[in-house]
Amino acid sequence: MLRAFTAIPYAWLVVLFLVPFAIVAKISLSDYAISIPPYTPTLDLAAGWEGVRAFFSELDFENFVFLTEDELYWKAYLSSLQIAILSTFLTLCVGFPIAYGMARAPEEWRPALMMLVILPFWTSFLIRVYAWIGILANEGFLNQFLMWIGVISEPLQMLNTNTAVYIGIVYTYLPFMILPVYASLERMDPSLLEAAEDLGCSRMSAFWHVTWPLARPGVIAGCFLVFIPAVGEFVIPSLLGGSGTLMIGKVLWEEFFNNRDWPVASAVAIILLLILIVPIVLFQRHEAKEREAGR
Amino acid sequence: MVDDKAFHPWDDPTATPLIRIEHISKRFGDFTAIDDISLGIYPKEFFALLGPSGCGKTTLMRMLAGFETPSEGRITIDGADMAGVPPNKRAVNMMFQSYALFPHLSVWDNIAFGLKRDRLDKDRVAARVDEMLKLTQLGKLARRKPHQLSGGQRQRVALARAMAKAPKLLLLDEPLGALDKKLRQETQFELMDIQEKTGTTFVIVTHDQEEAMTVASRVAVMNHGELIQVDTPGRIYEAPSSIYVADFIGDVNLIEGRVGAVGELAELNWAEGRSLKGQAGPSLEPGQAATLAIRPEKIAISREEPEAGNRVKGRIVDIGYLGNLSTYHVKLDEGPMIKCEVGNRSRLARRDFTWEDEVWLSWTDTAGLVLSS
Questions:
Q1: pTM above 0.90?
Q2: Running DSSP on this structure, what letter comes out for residue B155?
Q3: What chain B residue is nearest to A215 in terms of C-alpha separation?
């Protein structure tokens, strides 16, 4: 009985992760065709063993070769990585002080502050990104405000730029940075800072020698939680970014729905997955090490 | 423990205290945590601040460390005024109640932490850390992280870390509170040993009167932000200046009455036509309400009426057998309940008294103390 229950997570992973992955991998090795579904070959089990052999003989890597030939793809990968790295860094810069402030706040305030961080999740992600269009557009709130206080006389072009994409990513993923950092800071015994001061640290050096190393596990977890989805982000660049914003998620979407070239789109997805596996493995090794350290 | 005969700078008018606390008060809003305390602590002293929780002892210690600033008054350490001097600029180190060991650093690095902040060169840091490891017998654990240590080992790391910078003054905030009783007693003697070896002035905060009595050269009993009595453990126990101190330190029987004749000894009229005698406490006036304080171990118990100066008659209500001694709760004919402790020198089977026995309790004229109520 218990065994049946412990099998559920494995079944879940197989059905909802491994099988879809195998399907996508298979499509990435297929050829484009004007048909339904839009690729060949398809497995013909009626033909028996011969059918299976014919099916496998038609699979090849030419879509992957194609990806290396057109510079659009590797530029999109690089640009995605760059945007993800920079926005992860920005999220850390914004999120760390917030988490620090929350952890130092009076204990009775903390649940309310935590609520404020989580609250945006109660609204649809899509609506929140759309709301930013209203803020950043040429006639948007931000431009109107800046013109009203007289900082600028002409509206600034903010929407449809990379800046808007950074703002969108930082805004959307901020809770994923704040929560793990807060968790590690909140666990810290405040008398550690007093001990550091007592032993000759200034406030500043106490932060670098005690607070920062103790917050590091939370910072690393937060960075991975922001970086990994940001690399493959599609909604934010397509709504807030412009024609110059090159991100692999957008390219992937266009391959699937504009070009209807499923095999190339699948190859793009497979490569993206391989790129992301590196940080995911690093993240998991880090987590395992943390657990081993017993903290 | 410091030998009373050899070490009593507080009785020497030419000795200068290391720490002078002059008319210190500390208020948090409406609450007065420390109320006009003045105190001198001498070099090489092992000084205990003793009191119930919330009595201000921790606040006083935190002011010495620099974590709190006094609302009024002045603290000088070795002649230097400490006003405005932050904790990291004071030659004072503290051992925290929670130990506050840095969880991301090994034992070695924890001890080296303060030394590295002084930018000492590597060899000197290493030499000093090794010295501390030896002093606290932690040599084999130098590479461990704090979470791999037992409570007693952590306590020693905290002590080594606080001692590493060779402070003029070491503050210990309930240093043994987290240890079990047996380990606590062992550690008390270790602490005294280390204090004696290094000659550092120690100030310990504790709510455990036994601990304060064991380790300290002098004990300051505090309550509600005030110093009630500052004296050697012996005098705190034998000559408490108030009922509060007598009651707080150890077990005591309190018998209420009115003061009769006062001299070297004072007479206490406590029941119709009956009086008891004890040493006179400070400022006693004939006729005022007063209390006789008598320690349970100073009372003798017997079946026949004894010769002693003070004697009362009662009935045994309860017997507590503690192994090394027995406690008898005796209800006096006049009403009060008196506790009396007798060492069990003979075997259990030969014990003389049992429940409901009529007995006499007695003590000498100098055994008790008459204190104004």
A1: no
A2: H
A3: B104
